[in-house]
Design goal:
By secondary structure, the protein is α/β, with parallel strands linked by helices. It has an 8-stranded parallel β-sheet. Strands 1-2-5 form a 3-stranded antiparallel β-sheet. It has a domain of about 60 residues. The radius of gyration is 30 Å and the shape is globular. The protein is built from 21 helices and 18 strands. Helix 3 crosses helix 21, helix 7 packs across helix 8 and helix 11 packs parallel to helix 12.
């Protein structure tokens, strides 16, 4: 409510109040309004008031100060109602207008695609129908961990697994591959473990190190081979699988709040980093990630990484340039073996928890890497929990001095806050970011949304990550639902799928299709998401044209293969 004084209200023409219209003279003696009067503002700045709520004395003074004028303005504004036939037509047109604005509405399906689409929508409606009578059975309303087994058995999920999904544009180096790759790493010789596996939530995690001789320092170091011999491979493998994931049967109670789950999340990276950064494992793990992506029908990757120190048994520390060369060599070897794969690029993304001197070193390094590997280095980002990390405003001056040929792909808006960490979105846009990682809070910033569309800045959605890391509980409430509905430039990615027992991309595609998207969204949405992963990638024009051609061939083959497996009545 706005409070008024008589001296501040100019004389106006008769205005309509809640129960009558009146002409009043604020300069009249005995004007009833006090600094706390019950006056609000209606349309066009008109004063409105529920006069019956005024004290008796105020009402009598008000009556002397106003002249009551009968009015029928509001009652004469109604129009004749439509006929039912007109209403039905208008409603259909209204729905069509909305659907024409949705992501994928610009695509036209072939006759074969339309037939497959009818089957896809049948499967989708079956999934959604389970939650109408019993909301507890709705996949999108429950935590991903609670519904994982059911999703894996879903015919729709199995179909999405077979679908060519294009590329993953948002994933982090040591959390792309499944836990099975970590289990495999523990079979290497010379791996030492210090500490026991955690028995309860909050217990410290063990430490790992590859070395020819027993590591020095505090703690009891034992060869993993000896621990395996004592407990058996099956038990040890099971302990590794359980430890290197956030998965739990009771996710709503296991992680109290966003800071709590982020602490556990970061602890996983810290725990296995010395294991995965051993040079033979480093190369084996990355190649294994590419194999798992291809098995999930993902054929392109842009991944973020910190470039942690890689070492060998001679305790040699490899430089960042040498580490990137390892990535390049493994990628080229994989592409030779699998020519259907479209490519790999890297975004250097160190932690935002750093001092200014360290940050200056980051910028020097990314400049050097880009000059040496111009086709492989896509650009620069900063990672880490935004709520607790340094804001972009701490770095903007230095970032603006970076060479303009280095692109930005900033994490921004991975928060539930409004007016705090979410303002990193503004900095990211003004710095010229090509894509926005997560963009969860963009819905709270109308000008940010305007600029995203105007500049064609792609939002990298990671729905399962956002739920596991405590930003959203019900996928239907994810802001991606709005981005889908109004054709924002978006892709769906997986962030750190290993830590939530998810596939490289299929689980996020499924959740996006069943949970974020409208019940009416169909095969065109899935196709558009795949195409967007090429369109908004860091590939050049020639690369994109070749990628689209290869992907289209794979899509057409998928449609024909899928049609062989569906009932004839679709």
């Amino acid at each position: 409510m706005l409070s008024l004084r008589a001296s501040t209200v100019r004389r106006v023409q008769p205005v309509q109040l809640s129960y009558f219209s009146c002409a009043f003279s604020p300069s009249d003696e005995g004007w009833p309004w006090s600094a706390r009067s019950t006056v609000g503002w209606g349309q066009s700045g008109r004063v409105r008031s529920t006069v019956k709520c005024l004290p008796t004395v105020a009402r009598s003074r008000f009556a002397r100060a106003v002249t009551v004028v009968p009015t029928t303005a509001r009652t004469t504004m109604s129009s004749a109602r439509s006929t039912y036939d007109d209403f039905v037509r208008q409603r259909a047109e209204f729905l069509a207008r909305e659907q024409d604005r949705g992501l994928g509405s610009d695509l036209r399906l072939s006759a074969d695609e339309q037939r497959l689409n009818r089957y896809v929508m049948h499967l989708k409606q079956q999934e959604l129908a389970k939650g109408v009578e019993n909301p507890y059975e709705l996949v999108s309303a429950r935590h991903f961990f609670e519904m994982l087994d059911r999703i894996n058995d879903s015919p729709l999920f199995k179909l999405i697994q077979r679908l060519p999904k294009g590329g993953v544009l948002h994933a982090h180096d040591t959390a792309i591959g499944s836990t099975e790759l970590i289990v495999k790493a523990t079979y290497h010789e010379h791996l030492w473990q210090c500490g026991d596996f955690p028995r309860a939530d909050g217990d410290p995690l063990p430490s790992y190190r590859f070395a020819r001789a027993k590591p020095t320092g505090e703690g009891k170091w034992r060869l993993v081979a000896d621990i395996r011999a004592e407990n058996g491979n099956e038990a040890y493998d099971g302990a590794i699988r359980k430890m290197f994931t956030l998965y739990t049967r009771d996710p709503l109670n296991a992680h109290r709040d966003i800071n709590d789950v982020w602490r556990k999340f970061m602890a996983l990276f810290i725990c296995f980093e010395p294991m995965v950064t051993y040079k033979p494992v480093w190369e084996e793990y990355f190649y294994g990630c590419l194999e798992e992506l291809l098995a999930d029908n993902v054929t392109y990757l842009e991944f973020r990484g910190l470039l942690p120190p890689v070492y060998d048994l001679d305790n040699r520390k490899y430089t960042p340039e040498e580490i990137v060369q390892m990535y390049v060599d493994a990628s080229e070897r994989f592409l030779r073996a699998h020519p259907q794969f479209l490519g790999v690029k890297f975004i250097y993304a160190p932690l935002r928890f750093c001092d200014d001197r360290t940050f200056d070193g980051y910028l020097t390094l990314v400049q050097k890497l880009h000059e040496r590997f111009p086709r492989f280095i896509a650009g620069f980002d900063l990672v880490g929990q935004e709520d607790l990390g340094r804001p972009h405003t701490d770095f903007n001056e230095r970032l603006l001095r970076l060479s303009p040929d280095i692109n930005f792909f900033f994490h921004a808006g991975e928060t539930n806050w409004s007016g705090r960490a979410d303002e990193n979105l503004i900095d990211a846009i003004l710095l010229g970011t090509k894509r926005i990682g997560h963009g969860f809070a963009a819905l709270k910033h109308p000008v940010v949304l305007e600029e995203i569309k105007k500049r064609g800045i792609c939002i990298e959605l990671n729905p399962i990550s956002n739920q596991v890391l405590k930003l959203v509980q019900d996928f239907r409430n994810h802001p991606g639902a709005f981005y889908f509905s109004d054709d924002y430039p978006v892709v769906v990615s997986s962030d750190d799928p290993s830590f939530w027992c998810a596939s490289p991309l299929s689980h996020d595609f499924y959740v996006a299709f069943v949970g974020l998207a409208s019940a009416r969204a169909d095969l065109r949405l899935l196709k558009k998401l795949a195409l967007n992963s090429i369109e908004y990638s860091a590939m050049g024009g020639v690369e994109k044209a070749s990628a689209r051609q290869k992907w289209t061939a794979a899509w057409d083959a998928f449609v024909q293969e899928a049609l062989q497996t569906i009932p004839d009545n679709y």
